[in-house]
Amino acid sequence: MTSAANNFRMDYVEFPATDIGATKAFYAGVFGWQFTDYGPDYTSFFDGRLAGGFTTEWRPARGALVVFYASDLEGTEARIKAAGGKIVKPIFSFPGGRRFHFTDPNGNELAVWSE
Q: Using one digit for the tens of pLDDT, what is the confidence trace for 59-81?
């Protein structure tokens, strides 16, 4: 990634994890992500557009909020619940759409939005 067109684009994101296996099962089950393991304490993911990783080197804490888009908000909420995620802010309206917040098996808070 040396092209000037890629300058300053988000390239990789890392999340803390407490359980790599549960993390992989959750994100693969809900979003269909693919994983590559780099030892027992790190796994890299690819969602089709963005790559990142999960590490047990640090503990989950509230930081930047990562927001996913979903065409079926209620269906995605159901998939998250079925995979063991916890809804921490039920679906609410905001200017431009609706969204909800959830925590993954590690306690990381993320959100999903739709029109």
A: 877 777 898 999 999 999 999 99
Residue 5 lies in a domain: no
Q: What is the CATH number of the domain that holds 105?
A: 3.10.180.10
Tens digit of each residue's pLDDT (9 = 90 or more) over 6-32: 666 777 898 999 999 999 999 999 999
Instruction: Kindly write down the DSSP assignment for every residue of the chain, as one continuous string.
Output: ---GGGTT---EEEEE-S-HHHHHHHHHHHH--EEEE-STTEEEEE-SS-EEEEESSS-----SPEEEE-S-HHHHHHHHHHTT-EEEEEEEEETTEEEEEEE-TT--EEEEEE-
